[in-house]
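hi support,

uploading two proteins for the ticket. first:
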Amino acid sequence: LAKEYGPVFTVYFGMRPYVVLHGYNTLKEALIDQGEEFSERGRFSIMDEAASEFGIVFSNGHRWRQTRSFFLMVLRNMGVGKKTIENQIEEEVWCLVEALKKTNGSPCDPTFLLACVPCNVIFFVLFQKRFDYSDKKLQFLINSSHENSRIVSSSWIQLCSIFPALLCLPGSHKNYSENIAEQKKLIMDHIKEHQESLDFKNPKDFIDYFLIKMKKENDNKKSEFTMEHLITTVMDIFAAGTETISTTIRYGLLLLMKYPEISAKIQEEIDHVIGRHRSPCMQDRSRMPYMDAVVHEIQRYIDVVPFPIPRVTTQDVQFRGWHIPKGTKILISLTSVLHDKKEFPNPDKFDPGHFLDDTGNFRKSDYFMPFSVGKRSCVGEGLAHMEMFLILTTILQHFTLKPQFDPKDIDITPVENGLLSLPPSYELCFIPV
């Protein structure tokens, strides 16, 4: 459609018009240069019941700005971007390595184990707690999150987004609501524990910081720091901080099995820079341009969130000669940037060379925006970069990935491509190096 109508055009889903923004220059002008006008979050029908207008994903205006600023402050206080959180990730990745060793090189589906690291890292931020991989609560949270990702990315839910009345019918969306309700119960239990042990002078995690803020603003009837807002925000942070990262890692391993020559080259770099007797750290990234390029190329190629949850214009906007009224729903095509042919030659090919210059050094690209850009970009982007680099590097330091089929026969086509781009299920063998 963009080839025919240009980088700004309207499509109708049912009777609802959406303005689509396509291409790097268009997204930059809208989300950065006119970021305030395009900063409001739209609705996504199946999530309305769970999120309403609370949390960090679907809130708008003053509530959203306060929540985002508060969360970033807590992340800084807890050491995100510093050695504190890096050590936590390294410890969790080592637990993953031990769990993978127990598979004894037998075929296994890595879906659950790969989700344990980002899940426990987020639990550290939220609850100052980690779960053993055998814990039933952890298993439920991961499995229900995976199920909900499949549901919201399915064709049925895309149809329900166009015609919300369909949500009254039986369907997978009922399972989504049940999973959300159970997740809320678990989170509420942790909040109650925090309320009983709260130390005003020594907050340990996000929930403590939020509860203290609630107490301080107890007499402010207009305060945004309420229990409902806390629960929804925790749900948002958990979902955003676990599912996209675990999906990216899972998809990444599939691609590395498909292209074993890339895995071999990564392991050569690991042997040269790190060796086999110490754990990788973030300081290694600057000396590992090929590994850095692979991590970026995985995110670019899989395009895990092709179209983020819609935006809504906050006021009447004049944009590229068009008048866009206040309240217009906006669809942002991240795919159009991540697969731009001018920036990434052969964009449909998995090629780490997209992020390497002629001398083999890492090449940054303004077109790399899997976390979106501007005011609504992902607040956990820095944390996600740390996790993906450390997880993938450590796995390849300790294991060779052995597929169940000839690499040429491995299908890397996503099985769902709605809100998330999800890889097909697969098994592999983690062969100790």
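and the second one:
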Amino acid sequence: MQTELTNEEMLRYSRHLILPEVGVPGQEKLKAARVLLVGAGGLGSPTALYLAASGVGVLGIVDFDDVDLTNLHRQVIHGTSDVGRSKLDSAADAIQDVNPNVHVVKHRAMLTSENALEIIREYDYVVDGTDNFPSRYLVNDACVLLGKTNVYGSIYRFEGQATVFCAPGGPCYRCLYPEPPPPGMVPSCAEAGVLGVLPGIVGLIQATETVKLILGAGEPLVGRLLLYEALGMRFREVRIRRDPDCPVCGEHPTITKLIDYERFCGLPGRDETIDAQTLQGMIERHEPFTLVDVREPDEYEVNRIEGSKLIPLGELPDRLDELDRTKQTVVYCQAGIRGAKAHAILRDAGFENVLNLRGGIGEWERDVS
């Protein structure tokens, strides 16, 4: 790729070029850089827009989802006219409008153990905009194995955090979180909610750290976890260190290849889940199975899959006798997290044929309703 700046780029980036820390050499570094965004959602949206505006030459995006109306209060790279479109296509169009000099590479896929190394190895830096624990461990481990720096961010309700993992000599995600929380303990945004402006703040921190890393300027968030609390408008910092006994980045690693991250996080494997369209087919064919909604009664009143039986997750262990063990059982919640916990409860209780609806009723309404 030609990294020499054109006359148009000299004018476009003129406010960068007068910064001693950037200048022409730094802007050419940005133009030569290849950054992968894992996710074009809440965190990926501001990160993509500002990395594009800053002049990063190649932006790869991994996403498999479509734009939903519920995304728009926080995923600012997409607009109302994009509802129903692929997030990849919507994001690529927005990036090109911001800066047509950026080359966007679209990876229309879910990042998995089968494709992560192949995709990530083509990039210099990875920005983790994922919203679930299996994906975070997957991104982390792939970055460690490939020697790529992972610019991490996460959000929850009114709180966010950001840091830089997998930098030379620095800690990785497993150094901070050696074990995932039990399934269902940390609700997703679809279940717990999130302040719309929150991912904008955290995503911009990720974009800033990425630019600093490319330029080799300033002090990156290596070994420092930045915590943000929006209601009190407070930032604080926690020091984190590389764990010499870390199973992936430590002195004697035991994880030397990518694993099954759903099972590692206590979630049902792909063979223990069902997608919305397959479930619809089972319903239309009148197959004998029990459909259980494990959400709360107020959620059930708002929307439900016809024919489902309401048993809130907290009541499930005490109401197992209401279910027919000889039939297949399909459980669902709002986004799949409580469903995974219900799946584990039923399997532990001896139910042998249990499936969890991937993506919960949110996926059902997107793909079927």
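thanks. also noticed: The chain is about 35% helix and 20% strand.
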